[in-house]
Specification:
Helix 5 crosses helix 6 and helix 8 packs parallel to helix 9. About 45% of the residues are buried. The chain is built from 12 helices and 21 strands. Helix 3 links the parallel strand 5 and strand 6. Helix content is about 30%, strand content about 25%. Strands 4, 14, 15, 16, 17, 18, 19, 20 and 21 form a 9-stranded mixed beta sheet that branches. An 8-stranded parallel barrel has the order 5-6-7-8-9-11-12-13. It is an alpha/beta fold and about 425 residues long. It folds into 2 domains: about 160 residues, Lyase, Ornithine Decarboxylase, Chain A, domain 1; about 250 residues, TIM Barrel (Alpha-Beta Barrel). The longest helix is centred in the middle third of the chain and has 20 residues.
């Protein structure tokens, strides 16, 4: 990533050295590049510039208000999965008409709030939800624009915990039941069928999986139109993979291949195209900065014990995610290396950030960065072991801003309320 790199032997985010940031913000902390977000959004949007496309950034990957402000200024819409995310998108200036509401468990209160705002569409995941939306819309004298999220039963070849397009996953309506569910939707009061939706998983590098899924949706659209159910937009979801190492996938080649598949179908659809990219925009726009507390050699291996932990970045222990770990000061090319586990302070064996990594030798007190931490990092953090949520810092050229402070221990304790009888 050109915005996060070594410059004069020191790791920089845009024009500011991470070591300088660490002198002002206690480690661990997340640091994001504003221009990396802009660049990735523009790359994705430009790939579909020849079509009527709405790019709905998936808030679940990183929903900080500063990040949303950046993307709103670029013209992004939003893909949300809760009332909280919807409120965040609106607060950041993303128009309601550019927001799609996904998720398998929308409550009546969430549906009513979304209807009041005038969102673009609900992506409906079950027949039960369809009835609920109809009931709420009718009770509030609204009409809900909906699309059905179709589960195409396609294996995207990704990790089991981020697969969403197979028949055993909880998401979407089985494609074999799609026609009858659409006919039900068309018959319900308060419902206006406007689109069709899919989302088959995350970190997908098999373009054939997208191709197979889209082909099934295109076939459904033709059948629906024969039934006078007019599909006005097709939502292709998200899930496009990013590189986590220099030897990983070529991101631009993958995007071009993906766009080619979409273009092949889109030319015959006469529909608005909706996309829900998240990781592709945010993943490589951020790093996690941490400090080595102890170096602990044992008989079998060496542990680098750092001040970041699984509660700060749960991805490695949750689904075996791989993040490149590097010293903030660029090592010499001939620097001796050792194989280490990078582990944190949390009282769990699963508290690790990297396992069996060959790294230049580092000492206690040195700074490390975990790359590709802009997505599913801070948003999934917790206060386990009474560790406060860590800070988030944004760099934009030579400017920096603390976009979320870390609470004090007292602020964390004050979230509790003790009954007066104790």
């Amino acid at each position: 990533m050109q915005h996060i790199r070594y410059q004069n032997s020191a790791m920089q985010v845009e024009e500011i050295a991470i070591s300088d940031l660490a002198s002002r913000y206690p480690t661990p902390f997340y640091c994001y590049s504003a221009n990396a977000f802009r660049q990735q959004y523009r790359r994705f949007a430009n790939a579909f510039a020849d079509f009527p496309a709405l790019i709905c950034y998936a808030l679940k990957v990183n929903s900080n208000q500063a990040i949303l402000k950046i993307l709103a200024a670029e013209g992004a819409g939003a893909d949300v999965v809760s009332q909280g995310e919807l409120r965040r998108a609106l607060a950041a200036g993303i128009p309601a008409g550019k927001i799609v509401f996904s998720g398998v468990a929308k409550t009546a209160a969430e549906i009513e709030f979304a209807l009041q705002q005038g969102i673009h569409c609900f992506n409906v995941e079950s027949e039960s939800e369809l009835y609920q939306i109809s009931q709420v819309a009718e009770q509030t004298n609204n009409t809900a624009a909906i699309s059905l999220r179709i589960n195409p039963d396609v294996d995207a070849g990704t990790h089991a915990k981020i697969s969403t397009g197979k028949s055993e996953n909880k998401f979407g309506i089985p494609w074999k039941l799609a026609l009858q569910t659409y006919q039900l939707a068309a018959s319900l009061p308060g419902i206006k069928v406007t689109g069709i939706d899919m989302h088959i998983g995350s970190q997908i590098s098999k373009i054939s999986a997208f191709d197979q899924s889209i082909a099934r949706l295109v076939d459904l659209i033709a059948q629906l139109r024969e039934l006078d159910i007019n599909i006005q937009h097709i939502d292709f979801g998200g899930g496009l993979a990013i590189p986590y190492t220099a030897e990983d996938i070529d991101e631009q080649t993958l995007l071009a291949e993906y766009a080619a598949v979409i273009s092949r179908y889109a030319s015959q659809l006469n529909c608005q195209l909706i996309f829900e990219p998240g990781r592709f925009i945010a993943g490589n726009a951020g790093v996690l900065v941490t400090k080595v507390i102890y170096v602990k050699p044992v008989q079998q291996k060496t542990f680098l014990i750092v001040d970041a932990a699984m509660n700060d970045l749960i991805r490695p222990t949750l689904y075996d995610a791989w993040h490149h770990v590097a010293p903030v000061i660029e090592p010499q090319t001939d620097a001796p290396t050792t194989v280490v586990d990078v582990v944190g302070p949390v009282c769990e064996t699963g508290d690790y950030l990297a396992l069996d990594r060959s790294m230049p030798k580092v000492a206690a007190g040195e700074l490390l960065v975990l790359h590709s931490a802009g997505a599913y990092g801070a948003v999934a953090a917790s206060t386990y072991n009474s560790r406060p949520l860590i800070a988030e810092v944004l760099v934009d050229g030579n400017r920096e801003h603390l976009i979320r402070p870390s609470p004090s221990y007292q602020q964390l304790i004050d979230l509790d309320s003790v009954p007066d009888w104790l």
